[in-house]
Amino acid sequence: MAIQTHDELLTTIKDALQACGYVGELGGGSLQTRTPMTGEDLFAIEGTTKEQATEMIALADEAFKSWREVPAPRRGNVVKRWGQLLAEHKHDLGLLVQIEAGKSISEAEGEVQEMIDICDLALGQSRMLYGKTMPSERPGHRLMETWHPIGVVGVISAFNFPVAVYSWNTANALVCGDTVVWKPSEMCALSALGAHALLSRAIADCGEDQNISQLILGDRNVGEVLLDDPRVELVSATGSTRMGREVAPRVASRFGRYLLELGGNNAGIVTPSADLDLALRGIVFAAAGTAGQRCTTMRRLIVHESIADELVDKIVAAYKTLTIGDPRDESVLVGPLLHQGAYDDMQQALKTAKEQGGDVLVGGERVLVDDSEKSFYVQPAVVRMPEQSDIVHNETFAPILYVMTYSDFNEAIALHNAVPQGLSSAIFTENNSEAEIFLSASGSDCGIANVNIGTSGAEIGGAFGGEKETGGGRESGSDAWKAYMRRSTNTVNYSGELPLAQGVKFL
Ligand code: NAD
Protein backbone atom coordinates (compact mmCIF):
# COMPACT_ATOMS: atom_id res chain seq x y z
CA MET A 1 0.00 0.00 0.00
CA ALA A 2 1.26 3.49 -0.87
CA ILE A 3 2.68 5.44 2.08
CA GLN A 4 1.08 8.72 1.00
CA THR A 5 -1.47 9.59 -1.64
CA HIS A 6 -0.22 11.76 -4.50
CA ASP A 7 -2.11 14.76 -3.09
CA GLU A 8 -0.54 14.23 0.32
CA LEU A 9 2.89 14.14 -1.31
CA LEU A 10 2.21 17.43 -3.11
CA THR A 11 1.08 18.98 0.17
CA THR A 12 4.29 17.80 1.86
CA ILE A 13 6.32 19.53 -0.86
CA LYS A 14 4.32 22.76 -0.62
CA ASP A 15 4.60 22.83 3.17
CA ALA A 16 8.34 22.11 3.12
CA LEU A 17 9.01 24.81 0.53
CA GLN A 18 6.86 27.31 2.39
CA ALA A 19 8.69 26.52 5.64
CA CYS A 20 12.02 27.17 3.86
CA GLY A 21 10.68 30.56 2.78
CA TYR A 22 9.83 29.92 -0.87
CA VAL A 23 7.01 32.22 -1.90
CA GLY A 24 6.73 31.64 -5.68
CA GLU A 25 4.28 29.67 -7.77
CA LEU A 26 4.26 25.89 -8.04
CA GLY A 27 2.75 24.81 -11.31
CA GLY A 28 2.00 26.09 -14.77
CA GLY A 29 5.67 26.10 -15.81
CA SER A 30 7.77 24.23 -18.32
CA LEU A 31 10.13 22.34 -16.00
CA GLN A 32 8.48 19.09 -14.94
CA THR A 33 9.61 17.78 -11.56
CA ARG A 34 9.32 14.11 -10.64
CA THR A 35 9.99 11.74 -7.79
CA PRO A 36 11.90 8.48 -8.30
CA MET A 37 10.13 7.06 -5.20
CA THR A 38 6.96 6.43 -7.22
CA GLY A 39 7.94 7.69 -10.67
CA GLU A 40 5.13 10.23 -10.47
CA ASP A 41 5.26 13.72 -11.88
CA LEU A 42 5.11 16.50 -9.28
CA PHE A 43 4.83 20.22 -10.04
CA ALA A 44 5.69 21.74 -13.41
CA ILE A 45 7.61 24.82 -12.29
CA GLU A 46 8.88 27.86 -14.13
CA GLY A 47 12.21 27.26 -15.87
CA THR A 48 14.80 29.97 -16.60
CA THR A 49 15.32 31.15 -20.17
CA LYS A 50 18.79 31.80 -21.55
CA GLU A 51 18.02 35.53 -21.60
CA GLN A 52 17.00 35.44 -17.95
CA ALA A 53 20.15 33.47 -17.09
CA THR A 54 22.28 36.10 -18.80
CA GLU A 55 20.47 38.81 -16.86
CA MET A 56 21.15 36.94 -13.61
CA ILE A 57 24.84 36.80 -14.43
CA ALA A 58 24.76 40.57 -15.03
CA LEU A 59 23.08 41.14 -11.65
CA ALA A 60 25.60 38.91 -9.87
CA ASP A 61 28.45 40.68 -11.65
CA GLU A 62 27.14 44.08 -10.57
CA ALA A 63 26.59 42.87 -6.99
CA PHE A 64 30.18 41.59 -6.90
CA LYS A 65 31.50 45.14 -7.17
CA SER A 66 30.23 45.97 -3.70
CA TRP A 67 30.27 42.48 -2.14
CA ARG A 68 34.05 42.27 -2.62
CA GLU A 69 34.41 45.40 -0.48
CA VAL A 70 32.40 43.94 2.41
CA PRO A 71 34.86 42.76 5.09
CA ALA A 72 35.23 38.99 4.97
CA PRO A 73 34.13 38.42 8.60
CA ARG A 74 30.92 40.31 7.82
CA ARG A 75 30.44 38.14 4.72
CA GLY A 76 30.83 35.24 7.13
CA ASN A 77 27.66 36.38 8.93
CA VAL A 78 25.61 35.42 5.87
CA VAL A 79 26.83 31.81 5.92
CA LYS A 80 26.47 31.75 9.71
CA ARG A 81 22.81 32.73 9.35
CA TRP A 82 22.35 30.27 6.45
CA GLY A 83 23.69 27.50 8.68
CA GLN A 84 21.25 28.47 11.45
CA LEU A 85 18.30 28.42 9.05
CA LEU A 86 19.45 25.10 7.58
CA ALA A 87 19.57 23.63 11.09
CA GLU A 88 16.06 24.95 11.77
CA HIS A 89 14.76 23.49 8.49
CA LYS A 90 16.88 20.36 8.27
CA HIS A 91 13.80 18.18 8.09
CA ASP A 92 11.97 20.37 5.54
CA LEU A 93 14.91 20.47 3.13
CA GLY A 94 15.70 16.82 3.90
CA LEU A 95 12.16 15.90 2.79
CA LEU A 96 12.63 17.68 -0.54
CA VAL A 97 15.95 15.88 -1.09
CA GLN A 98 14.34 12.58 -0.22
CA ILE A 99 11.46 13.16 -2.62
CA GLU A 100 13.64 14.12 -5.59
CA ALA A 101 16.77 12.01 -5.03
CA GLY A 102 15.03 9.02 -3.41
CA LYS A 103 17.28 8.84 -0.33
CA SER A 104 16.34 7.58 3.14
CA ILE A 105 15.42 10.46 5.43
CA SER A 106 18.55 9.78 7.49
CA GLU A 107 20.78 10.21 4.41
CA ALA A 108 18.75 13.17 3.12
CA GLU A 109 19.01 14.97 6.46
CA GLY A 110 22.68 13.95 6.57
CA GLU A 111 23.10 15.86 3.33
CA VAL A 112 21.59 18.97 4.94
CA GLN A 113 23.89 18.42 7.94
CA GLU A 114 26.82 18.65 5.51
CA MET A 115 25.50 22.05 4.48
CA ILE A 116 25.36 23.16 8.12
CA ASP A 117 28.91 21.88 8.67
CA ILE A 118 30.33 23.75 5.67
CA CYS A 119 28.64 26.95 6.88
CA ASP A 120 30.47 26.53 10.20
CA LEU A 121 33.72 25.90 8.38
CA ALA A 122 33.28 28.85 6.01
CA LEU A 123 32.39 31.17 8.89
CA GLY A 124 35.75 30.35 10.50
CA GLN A 125 37.44 30.61 7.11
CA SER A 126 36.10 34.15 6.74
CA ARG A 127 38.67 35.17 9.38
CA MET A 128 41.45 33.03 7.93
CA LEU A 129 41.94 34.01 4.27
CA TYR A 130 45.64 34.00 4.98
CA GLY A 131 48.40 35.13 2.66
CA LYS A 132 52.07 34.40 3.24
CA THR A 133 54.93 36.81 3.89
CA MET A 134 58.26 35.67 2.43
CA PRO A 135 61.76 37.01 3.10
CA SER A 136 62.79 39.35 0.29
CA GLU A 137 66.28 39.01 -1.18
CA ARG A 138 66.53 42.80 -1.23
CA PRO A 139 67.13 44.91 1.91
CA GLY A 140 64.26 47.18 2.96
CA HIS A 141 61.67 45.21 0.99
CA ARG A 142 58.62 43.23 1.99
CA LEU A 143 57.37 40.34 -0.18
CA MET A 144 53.91 38.94 0.44
CA GLU A 145 50.82 37.35 -1.05
CA THR A 146 47.31 38.71 -0.74
CA TRP A 147 44.12 36.90 -1.76
CA HIS A 148 41.25 38.65 -3.51
CA PRO A 149 37.75 37.64 -4.63
CA ILE A 150 37.48 36.63 -8.29
CA GLY A 151 33.93 37.58 -9.31
CA VAL A 152 30.93 35.52 -10.35
CA VAL A 153 31.15 31.80 -9.61
CA GLY A 154 28.88 29.55 -11.69
CA VAL A 155 27.94 26.36 -9.84
CA ILE A 156 26.57 23.40 -11.81
CA SER A 157 25.49 20.47 -9.64
CA ALA A 158 24.40 16.84 -10.01
CA PHE A 159 21.19 15.10 -8.96
CA ASN A 160 22.65 12.73 -6.39
CA PHE A 161 23.83 15.39 -3.93
CA PRO A 162 21.38 18.06 -5.02
CA VAL A 163 22.06 20.59 -2.26
CA ALA A 164 25.27 19.68 -0.34
CA VAL A 165 27.71 20.24 -3.20
CA TYR A 166 26.03 23.58 -3.93
CA SER A 167 26.66 24.63 -0.34
CA TRP A 168 30.33 23.55 -0.41
CA ASN A 169 30.85 25.92 -3.32
CA THR A 170 28.56 28.68 -2.17
CA ALA A 171 29.66 28.95 1.47
CA ASN A 172 33.31 29.18 0.42
CA ALA A 173 32.64 31.49 -2.54
CA LEU A 174 30.55 33.92 -0.47
CA VAL A 175 33.08 34.32 2.33
CA CYS A 176 35.79 34.74 -0.30
CA GLY A 177 33.81 37.71 -1.65
CA ASP A 178 32.43 36.14 -4.82
CA THR A 179 28.83 36.08 -5.98
CA VAL A 180 27.15 32.82 -7.03
CA VAL A 181 24.91 31.77 -9.92
CA TRP A 182 23.68 28.20 -9.36
CA LYS A 183 22.37 25.80 -12.02
CA PRO A 184 21.20 22.76 -10.04
CA SER A 185 20.28 19.41 -11.57
CA GLU A 186 17.02 19.63 -13.49
CA MET A 187 16.06 16.43 -11.62
CA CYS A 188 16.11 18.24 -8.27
CA ALA A 189 14.64 21.69 -8.90
CA LEU A 190 12.36 21.63 -5.85
CA SER A 191 15.26 20.91 -3.48
CA ALA A 192 17.08 23.79 -5.18
CA LEU A 193 14.17 26.16 -4.56
CA GLY A 194 14.23 25.22 -0.86
CA ALA A 195 18.01 25.57 -0.43
CA HIS A 196 18.08 28.83 -2.37
CA ALA A 197 15.12 30.28 -0.42
CA LEU A 198 16.96 29.62 2.84
CA LEU A 199 20.03 31.46 1.56
CA SER A 200 17.84 34.37 0.40
CA ARG A 201 16.41 34.60 3.90
CA ALA A 202 19.91 34.58 5.41
CA ILE A 203 20.99 37.38 3.07
CA ALA A 204 17.89 39.42 3.97
CA ASP A 205 18.37 38.84 7.71
CA CYS A 206 21.93 40.16 7.39
CA GLY A 207 20.81 43.17 5.36
CA GLU A 208 23.02 42.27 2.37
CA ASP A 209 22.33 42.44 -1.38
CA GLN A 210 20.04 39.65 -2.65
CA ASN A 211 21.80 39.70 -6.01
CA ILE A 212 24.87 37.96 -4.59
CA SER A 213 22.94 34.68 -5.03
CA GLN A 214 21.11 33.66 -8.22
CA LEU A 215 19.28 30.48 -9.23
CA ILE A 216 18.95 29.19 -12.80
CA LEU A 217 16.42 26.37 -13.25
CA GLY A 218 16.60 24.11 -16.27
CA ASP A 219 18.62 21.55 -18.12
CA ARG A 220 22.08 21.65 -19.66
CA ASN A 221 20.99 24.07 -22.41
CA VAL A 222 20.46 26.90 -19.98
CA GLY A 223 23.49 25.74 -17.95
CA GLU A 224 25.66 26.34 -21.00
CA VAL A 225 25.14 30.09 -20.58
CA LEU A 226 27.53 29.85 -17.61
CA LEU A 227 30.21 28.24 -19.75
CA ASP A 228 30.34 30.96 -22.37
CA ASP A 229 29.76 34.19 -20.43
CA PRO A 230 33.12 35.89 -19.74
CA ARG A 231 31.71 37.48 -16.58
CA VAL A 232 31.63 34.02 -14.96
CA GLU A 233 35.19 33.81 -13.67
CA LEU A 234 34.94 30.27 -12.31
CA VAL A 235 32.66 27.41 -13.35
CA SER A 236 32.51 24.76 -10.64
CA ALA A 237 30.82 21.75 -12.23
CA THR A 238 29.85 18.49 -10.55
CA GLY A 239 28.51 15.58 -12.57
CA SER A 240 29.50 12.96 -15.09
CA THR A 241 32.83 12.77 -16.90
CA ARG A 242 30.84 13.28 -20.10
CA MET A 243 29.65 16.64 -18.80
CA GLY A 244 33.19 17.60 -17.71
CA ARG A 245 34.52 16.88 -21.18
CA GLU A 246 32.05 19.42 -22.57
CA VAL A 247 32.49 22.03 -19.85
CA ALA A 248 36.30 22.17 -19.52
CA PRO A 249 37.31 23.06 -23.11
CA ARG A 250 34.50 25.59 -23.50
CA VAL A 251 35.43 27.47 -20.35
CA ALA A 252 39.16 27.16 -21.10
CA SER A 253 38.65 28.58 -24.61
CA ARG A 254 37.78 31.94 -23.02
CA PHE A 255 40.52 31.50 -20.34
CA GLY A 256 37.90 31.06 -17.64
CA ARG A 257 38.69 28.90 -14.64
CA TYR A 258 36.97 25.62 -13.98
CA LEU A 259 36.77 23.28 -11.02
CA LEU A 260 35.59 19.77 -11.93
CA GLU A 261 34.11 17.09 -9.65
CA LEU A 262 33.34 14.23 -12.01
CA GLY A 263 32.66 10.52 -12.00
CA GLY A 264 34.37 8.01 -9.74
CA ASN A 265 35.11 4.30 -10.00
CA ASN A 266 36.09 3.63 -6.45
CA ALA A 267 37.70 0.46 -5.17
CA GLY A 268 38.45 -1.22 -1.87
CA ILE A 269 41.35 -3.62 -1.29
CA VAL A 270 40.92 -6.29 1.38
CA THR A 271 44.14 -7.92 2.57
CA PRO A 272 44.52 -11.22 4.49
CA SER A 273 44.95 -9.48 7.86
CA ALA A 274 41.74 -7.43 7.57
CA ASP A 275 39.02 -7.50 10.22
CA LEU A 276 36.43 -9.08 7.93
CA ASP A 277 33.38 -8.09 9.97
CA LEU A 278 34.43 -4.44 9.93
CA ALA A 279 35.30 -4.68 6.23
CA LEU A 280 31.93 -6.28 5.49
CA ARG A 281 30.00 -3.40 7.05
CA GLY A 282 32.18 -0.79 5.34
CA ILE A 283 31.84 -2.49 1.95
CA VAL A 284 28.07 -3.07 2.03
CA PHE A 285 27.32 0.54 3.04
CA ALA A 286 29.72 1.94 0.42
CA ALA A 287 28.56 -0.38 -2.39
CA ALA A 288 24.80 -0.71 -1.86
CA GLY A 289 23.95 2.44 0.15
CA THR A 290 22.12 5.23 -1.67
CA ALA A 291 21.38 2.52 -4.29
CA GLY A 292 24.91 2.91 -5.66
CA GLN A 293 24.24 6.53 -6.62
CA ARG A 294 27.09 8.26 -4.81
CA CYS A 295 30.12 9.52 -6.68
CA THR A 296 32.08 7.71 -3.95
CA THR A 297 30.12 4.43 -4.19
CA MET A 298 32.40 1.39 -4.00
CA ARG A 299 32.21 -0.23 -7.43
CA ARG A 300 35.22 -2.56 -7.32
CA LEU A 301 36.49 -4.89 -4.61
CA ILE A 302 39.98 -6.34 -4.83
CA VAL A 303 40.35 -9.21 -2.33
CA HIS A 304 43.27 -11.45 -1.50
CA GLU A 305 42.60 -14.90 -2.93
CA SER A 306 43.02 -16.59 0.50
CA ILE A 307 39.99 -14.81 1.96
CA ALA A 308 37.94 -14.07 -1.17
CA ASP A 309 35.42 -16.93 -0.88
CA GLU A 310 34.77 -16.30 2.81
CA LEU A 311 34.32 -12.54 2.33
CA VAL A 312 32.23 -12.84 -0.80
CA ASP A 313 29.89 -15.33 0.93
CA LYS A 314 29.42 -12.84 3.76
CA ILE A 315 28.73 -9.97 1.34
CA VAL A 316 26.20 -12.01 -0.63
CA ALA A 317 24.46 -13.05 2.61
CA ALA A 318 24.35 -9.40 3.76
CA TYR A 319 22.96 -8.28 0.37
CA LYS A 320 20.12 -10.78 0.72
CA THR A 321 19.02 -9.05 3.94
CA LEU A 322 18.93 -5.52 2.45
CA THR A 323 15.48 -3.97 2.56
CA ILE A 324 14.61 -2.41 -0.78
CA GLY A 325 11.69 -0.08 -1.24
CA ASP A 326 10.11 3.31 -0.83
CA PRO A 327 12.57 5.34 1.28
CA ARG A 328 9.69 6.92 3.21
CA ASP A 329 9.46 3.56 4.98
CA GLU A 330 12.13 4.00 7.66
CA SER A 331 13.06 0.32 7.65
CA VAL A 332 14.20 0.60 4.01
CA LEU A 333 17.96 0.68 3.33
CA VAL A 334 17.99 0.79 -0.49
CA GLY A 335 15.77 3.26 -2.34
CA PRO A 336 15.08 3.73 -6.04
CA LEU A 337 17.30 4.40 -9.02
CA LEU A 338 16.76 7.85 -10.51
CA HIS A 339 14.86 6.75 -13.61
CA GLN A 340 14.50 4.14 -16.33
CA GLY A 341 17.75 5.30 -17.97
CA ALA A 342 19.68 4.38 -14.82
CA TYR A 343 17.96 0.98 -14.70
CA ASP A 344 18.73 0.31 -18.37
CA ASP A 345 22.39 1.27 -17.85
CA MET A 346 22.60 -1.19 -14.97
CA GLN A 347 21.08 -4.03 -17.01
CA GLN A 348 23.43 -3.29 -19.91
CA ALA A 349 26.47 -3.29 -17.60
CA LEU A 350 25.44 -6.63 -16.08
CA LYS A 351 24.94 -8.12 -19.54
CA THR A 352 28.40 -6.91 -20.63
CA ALA A 353 29.95 -8.17 -17.38
CA LYS A 354 28.56 -11.64 -18.06
CA GLU A 355 29.87 -11.55 -21.64
CA GLN A 356 33.30 -10.66 -20.22
CA GLY A 357 33.37 -13.65 -17.88
CA GLY A 358 31.51 -12.23 -14.89
CA ASP A 359 29.41 -14.36 -12.56
CA VAL A 360 26.46 -12.53 -10.99
CA LEU A 361 26.32 -13.89 -7.43
CA VAL A 362 23.35 -11.87 -6.26
CA GLY A 363 21.08 -9.10 -7.47
CA GLY A 364 20.46 -7.11 -10.61
CA GLU A 365 16.77 -7.87 -10.83
CA ARG A 366 14.08 -5.24 -10.72
CA VAL A 367 11.99 -5.00 -7.54
CA LEU A 368 8.43 -3.80 -8.08
CA VAL A 369 7.32 -1.48 -5.28
CA ASP A 370 3.57 -0.86 -4.93
CA ASP A 371 3.14 -2.55 -8.33
CA SER A 372 4.36 0.67 -9.94
CA GLU A 373 5.91 0.36 -13.40
CA LYS A 374 6.99 4.01 -13.22
CA SER A 375 9.60 3.64 -10.47
CA PHE A 376 12.85 1.66 -10.78
CA TYR A 377 14.03 -0.29 -7.77
CA VAL A 378 16.70 -2.98 -8.01
CA GLN A 379 18.33 -5.65 -5.91
CA PRO A 380 21.99 -4.47 -5.57
CA ALA A 381 24.32 -6.80 -7.44
CA VAL A 382 27.64 -8.50 -6.66
CA VAL A 383 29.54 -9.83 -9.67
CA ARG A 384 32.66 -11.98 -9.49
CA MET A 385 34.93 -10.84 -12.33
CA PRO A 386 38.14 -12.13 -13.88
CA GLU A 387 41.14 -9.86 -13.20
CA GLN A 388 41.10 -8.39 -16.72
CA SER A 389 37.87 -7.02 -18.17
CA ASP A 390 36.84 -3.72 -19.72
CA ILE A 391 33.55 -3.23 -17.94
CA VAL A 392 35.18 -2.62 -14.55
CA HIS A 393 36.80 0.49 -16.01
CA ASN A 394 33.43 2.21 -16.39
CA GLU A 395 31.32 4.02 -13.83
CA THR A 396 27.75 2.68 -14.02
CA PHE A 397 25.67 4.82 -11.70
CA ALA A 398 23.85 1.93 -10.03
CA PRO A 399 24.60 -0.64 -7.29
CA ILE A 400 26.97 -3.12 -8.96
CA LEU A 401 30.01 -4.34 -7.03
CA TYR A 402 32.63 -6.11 -9.17
CA VAL A 403 34.83 -8.48 -7.14
CA MET A 404 38.33 -9.40 -8.30
CA THR A 405 41.08 -11.32 -6.52
CA TYR A 406 44.83 -10.82 -6.19
CA SER A 407 47.76 -12.85 -4.89
CA ASP A 408 50.49 -10.20 -4.51
CA PHE A 409 49.99 -6.80 -2.86
CA ASN A 410 51.67 -4.88 -5.71
CA GLU A 411 49.25 -6.55 -8.09
CA ALA A 412 46.35 -5.31 -5.92
CA ILE A 413 47.61 -1.70 -6.14
CA ALA A 414 48.10 -2.03 -9.91
CA LEU A 415 44.54 -3.35 -10.36
CA HIS A 416 43.27 -0.61 -8.11
CA ASN A 417 44.89 2.17 -10.15
CA ALA A 418 44.14 0.66 -13.58
CA VAL A 419 40.99 2.73 -14.22
CA PRO A 420 40.66 6.19 -15.74
CA GLN A 421 38.89 7.69 -12.71
CA GLY A 422 40.56 8.67 -9.42
CA LEU A 423 38.05 9.80 -6.80
CA SER A 424 37.93 7.62 -3.68
CA SER A 425 39.65 4.47 -2.44
CA ALA A 426 39.94 2.26 0.61
CA ILE A 427 42.06 -0.49 2.09
CA PHE A 428 40.94 -2.87 4.81
CA THR A 429 44.00 -4.24 6.59
CA GLU A 430 45.54 -4.67 10.03
CA ASN A 431 49.02 -4.66 8.43
CA ASN A 432 50.58 -1.25 9.04
CA SER A 433 53.02 -1.41 6.20
CA GLU A 434 50.32 -2.27 3.65
CA ALA A 435 48.25 0.64 4.95
CA GLU A 436 51.20 3.02 4.67
CA ILE A 437 52.09 1.85 1.16
CA PHE A 438 48.45 2.36 0.10
CA LEU A 439 48.61 5.98 1.34
CA SER A 440 52.08 6.62 -0.14
CA ALA A 441 53.08 8.01 -3.54
CA SER A 442 53.22 4.46 -4.93
CA GLY A 443 49.84 3.54 -3.51
CA SER A 444 46.32 4.70 -4.31
CA ASP A 445 46.24 7.34 -7.07
CA CYS A 446 42.94 8.80 -5.85
CA GLY A 447 42.05 12.13 -4.26
CA ILE A 448 40.64 10.27 -1.25
CA ALA A 449 42.41 7.26 0.27
CA ASN A 450 41.00 5.63 3.42
CA VAL A 451 42.16 2.90 5.80
CA ASN A 452 39.56 0.63 7.41
CA ILE A 453 36.71 2.86 6.22
CA GLY A 454 34.67 2.47 3.04
CA THR A 455 35.02 4.79 0.06
CA SER A 456 31.94 6.93 0.75
CA GLY A 457 30.87 9.31 3.51
CA ALA A 458 33.56 12.02 3.50
CA GLU A 459 33.65 14.79 6.12
CA ILE A 460 33.62 18.42 5.03
CA GLY A 461 36.86 19.31 6.90
CA GLY A 462 39.05 17.63 4.27
CA ALA A 463 39.40 18.78 0.67
CA PHE A 464 37.04 16.70 -1.50
CA GLY A 465 37.78 15.66 -5.07
CA GLY A 466 39.68 13.29 -7.31
CA GLU A 467 42.35 12.83 -9.94
CA LYS A 468 42.47 11.71 -13.59
CA GLU A 469 39.02 11.70 -15.23
CA THR A 470 37.45 12.76 -11.94
CA GLY A 471 38.71 16.20 -12.93
CA GLY A 472 41.32 17.26 -10.37
CA GLY A 473 39.11 19.79 -8.54
CA ARG A 474 38.93 20.21 -4.76
CA GLU A 475 35.94 21.55 -2.85
CA SER A 476 34.85 21.78 0.77
CA GLY A 477 37.50 22.04 3.53
CA SER A 478 41.28 22.35 3.93
CA ASP A 479 42.60 24.97 1.48
CA ALA A 480 39.85 24.43 -1.14
CA TRP A 481 38.85 28.09 -0.57
CA LYS A 482 41.83 29.17 -2.68
CA ALA A 483 40.02 28.08 -5.86
CA TYR A 484 37.51 30.88 -5.27
CA MET A 485 40.14 33.64 -4.97
CA ARG A 486 42.95 35.14 -7.00
CA ARG A 487 46.45 35.50 -5.60
CA SER A 488 48.40 38.71 -5.83
CA THR A 489 52.14 38.76 -5.07
CA ASN A 490 53.19 42.13 -3.68
CA THR A 491 56.63 43.65 -3.17
CA VAL A 492 56.87 46.79 -1.05
CA ASN A 493 60.09 48.80 -1.12
CA TYR A 494 60.68 50.92 2.00
CA SER A 495 64.47 51.19 1.54
CA GLY A 496 64.64 54.49 -0.29
CA GLU A 497 66.97 52.76 -2.80
CA LEU A 498 66.02 50.82 -5.92
CA PRO A 499 67.98 47.57 -5.87
CA LEU A 500 66.85 45.23 -8.68
CA ALA A 501 66.17 41.54 -8.10
CA GLN A 502 68.92 39.04 -9.01
CA GLY A 503 71.45 41.91 -8.65
CA VAL A 504 70.62 43.24 -12.13
CA LYS A 505 72.14 46.64 -12.90
CA PHE A 506 70.24 49.17 -15.05
CA LEU A 507 70.70 52.95 -15.22
P1 NAD B 1 25.19 14.89 -15.29
O1 NAD B 1 26.57 15.05 -15.82
O2 NAD B 1 24.17 14.28 -16.15
O3 NAD B 1 24.60 16.33 -14.86
C1 NAD B 1 25.24 17.13 -13.89
C2 NAD B 1 24.85 18.58 -14.08
O4 NAD B 1 25.50 19.07 -15.25
C3 NAD B 1 23.37 18.83 -14.29
O5 NAD B 1 23.01 20.01 -13.62
C4 NAD B 1 23.26 19.01 -15.80
O6 NAD B 1 22.15 19.77 -16.20
C5 NAD B 1 24.55 19.73 -16.09
N1 NAD B 1 25.09 19.60 -17.45
C6 NAD B 1 25.22 18.48 -18.18
N2 NAD B 1 25.82 18.76 -19.36
C7 NAD B 1 26.08 20.10 -19.36
C8 NAD B 1 26.65 21.01 -20.28
N3 NAD B 1 27.10 20.62 -21.48
N4 NAD B 1 26.75 22.30 -19.93
C9 NAD B 1 26.30 22.74 -18.74
N5 NAD B 1 25.72 21.95 -17.82
C10 NAD B 1 25.62 20.64 -18.13
O7 NAD B 1 25.33 14.07 -13.90
P2 NAD B 1 24.19 13.48 -12.94
O8 NAD B 1 23.56 12.30 -13.58
O9 NAD B 1 23.32 14.57 -12.43
O10 NAD B 1 25.09 12.99 -11.69
C11 NAD B 1 25.76 11.78 -11.62
C12 NAD B 1 27.22 11.95 -11.98
O11 NAD B 1 27.83 12.96 -11.18
C13 NAD B 1 28.04 10.70 -11.71
O12 NAD B 1 28.97 10.53 -12.73
C14 NAD B 1 28.74 11.02 -10.38
O13 NAD B 1 29.92 10.28 -10.15
C15 NAD B 1 29.02 12.48 -10.57
N6 NAD B 1 29.22 13.15 -9.29
C16 NAD B 1 30.50 13.50 -8.95
C17 NAD B 1 30.73 14.10 -7.73
C18 NAD B 1 32.13 14.47 -7.31
O14 NAD B 1 32.26 15.22 -6.35
N7 NAD B 1 33.17 14.00 -7.96
C19 NAD B 1 29.66 14.38 -6.86
C20 NAD B 1 28.38 14.02 -7.25
C21 NAD B 1 28.17 13.41 -8.48
TrEMBL record:
The active site is at 261. Keywords: NAD, Oxidoreductase. InterPro entries: Ald_DH/histidinol_DH, Ald_DH_C, Ald_DH_CS_GLU, Ald_DH_N, Aldehyde_DH_dom, ALDH7A1-like. The lineage of its organism: Bacteria, Bacillati, Actinomycetota, Actinomycetes, Mycobacteriales. Residues 31-487 form the Aldehyde dehydrogenase domain. CDD domains: ALDH_F7_AASADH. Its EC number is 1.2.1.3. This is aldehyde dehydrogenase (NAD(+)). PROSITE patterns: ALDEHYDE_DEHYDR_GLU. Homotetramer.
